[in-house]
Amino acid sequence: MGEPVTVAKLIDTSTCIGCKACEAACQEWNDHGFRISDFDGTYQTRPDLSHDFWNLIRFNELDVDGGMAWHMAKYQCMHCVDPGCLRACPSPGAIVVRENGTVDFEDEHCIGCGYCMTGCPFDVPRRHPESKKVYKCTLCSDRTAVGLEPACVKACPTSCLTFGRREDLLAEAESRAQTLREDGFERAGVYNPEGVGGTNVFYVLARADRPEDYGLPRDPRIHWALRFWQGPVKWLGGLLLLGTAIGAFFHYLRYGPKESGHAVENAVEPAVEPAQD
Amino acid sequence: MPSRTLSSRPSSRRRIERYSFYERSVHWLAALTFVYSALTGLALFSPKLLWIASVFGGGEVLRGWHPWGGVLFSVALALMFLKWARQMRIDADDRKWLRGAHRYARHDDEGLPPSGKFNGGQKLLFWLQVLATLVLLSSGVVLWFPEATGQGLRLAAIVLHSSTAVLSMSLIVLHVYMGTAAVPGSFEAMTRGEVSEEWAREHHAKWSREVSGS
Q1: How far, CA to CA in Å, does A56 sit from each of A51, A74, A185, A250, B58?
Q2: Which residue has the higher pLDDT, B9 or B21?
Q3: Residue in B60, B177, B214 closest to A274 by CB
Q4: pLDDT at residue A260 in the model
Q5: Would you call B200 an interface residue with chain A, using a CB distance cutoff of 8 Å?
Q6: Which residue, among A48, A123, A260, would best test binding to B if mutated, counting the most B CBs under 10 Å from its CB?
């Protein structure tokens, strides 16, 4: 037992061969089944993630030295240390951070509002079209809980994907980036964005100076509007609402109702009739 | 403005019709849908408030119905707008009244200009609610269909929707207080539709002169 261990997944894009074994393994393990994909003229399985497709290899096509190059990158939940989805979620228990750092959605508590889609800096959660409940990669929490690695890692034939302790994997990522730099990829580096407190899924990129080429945001962070909403709007709003109610109550105690005053008293004996015509 | 004396009351005091059946129906449709939207909205406002959802069939049910509550409220408010917009115009007297609203709050009404069917405060509330509803409806639609809208737009909507809602709810808390405990006679005006002549003279002198034709 002892201290809980934070687990992580390393994606070394320099060794991805685009075999899509991780996609198949993800579909199979999570019982999502397979369907004919939308063909959009690329090698990519589908244009986008969906509620039942959590792991997409993006075949980013780039012009490099007059030729075409692929910057293949796995697109999935980043399992942020500071998850924007959780900050946005109004339903207690619908989004949980497990002891090992995994950010997990619990669909029995999900009410389907889609706020997590607004809070996520990586645009990952997707709603089920009917139930409106939101789904994404669970980092195979049902496997990792019993000591297995995630299905995608298990299926990866090139050790592009590695699973383990976060600190160990970060060191491994740094050393792989170092090797790449020594091999002539001068701008190789690790993508573990600080704006979301770091992530438990991180990348080795041959061009760490251009994360956009891999479909990754340059500087993802919890948006200030989300912080503003989560903080001041909520407590100031609550204060204003309560304050108004309490204010009204004390107004009543201090000033009482606005009586129609003498006009009413006079009216008991209607001495003054309004002039007719 | 037609004046009508309702003689069904045993009292010798003359009653004046203040709100027609239609006006009252629209008002209470707005009230009901506002309360529903406000409470279900509060439930969605914070994880600390989701317990409210249990009264409305749970979080999922509420998530599905809250937008419809808002749409119905907007319809009710639009009807109110059509009925009252002209009478709600803020004139010079109303502006003077509003500047002296602190005196009105202390029941020190001497020197405040006489009000028409609606006083400056009621008119201000009306226009603020119209404005708030425009913001709430447009931002609400954005949040209703997250797949169809961009993330930046949704972030703006989430901030606008909740802050406007809280402001609007605070105004309605005041409105409910004014319409019940604070001004006796006004609740009956909105339920039975009538007020006494004295009440009309006291609170809405200009209107009272108009309807009594004197």
Answers
A1: 12, 6, 25, 60, 34
A2: B21
A3: B214
A4: 61
A5: no
A6: A260
Q: Give the type of residue at B190.
A: M
- The predicted complex's ipTM stands at 0.88
The secondary structure of residue B36, as a DSSP letter, is H
* Length of chain B in terms of residues written: 214
Neighbours of B133 (CB within 10 A): 23
Residue listed under structure tokens 């000591």:
A147
| Pick among A89, A107, A113, A269 to test the B interface (most B CBs inside 10 A) | A113
Chain A CB contacts of B202 under 8 Å are 260-261, 263-264
What part of B 2-61 touches A (C-beta under 8 Å)? 12-13, 43-47, 49-50, 53, 58-60
Structure confidence by residue, pLDDT tens digits, A54-73:
999 999 999 888 899 899 99
What is each CA distance from A68 to A15, A60, A74, A118, A207, in whole angstroms? 18, 10, 19, 34, 16
3-class state of residue B86 by DSSP: coil
Burial class (CB in 10 A: 0-12, 13-18, 19+), A272: exposed
* B198 class by beta-carbon count within 10 Å (0-12 exposed, 13-18 middle, 19+ buried): buried
This prediction has a pTM of: 0.89
What pLDDT, on the 0 to 100 scale, is given for residue A2?
Answer: 66
